[in-house]
Amino acid sequence: MRIPPQTTPRRAALLAPVLAAALVPAVVGAVGIGGTAHAAASVMSAPARAAAVDLTDPHKKDIAMQLVSSAENSSLDWKAQYKYIEDIDDGRGYTAGIIGFCSGTGDMLDLVELYTQRKPGNVLAKYLPALRRVNGSDSHSGLDPNFTKDWATAAKDSVFQKAQNDERDRVYFNPAVQQAKADGLRALGQFIYYDAIVMHGPGNDSVSFGGIRKTAMKKAKTPAQGGNETTYLNAFLDARKAAMKTEEAHSDTSRVDTEQRVFLKAGNLDLNPPLTWKVYGDSYTIKS
Question: How much is the pTM?
Answer without folding.
Answer: 0.83
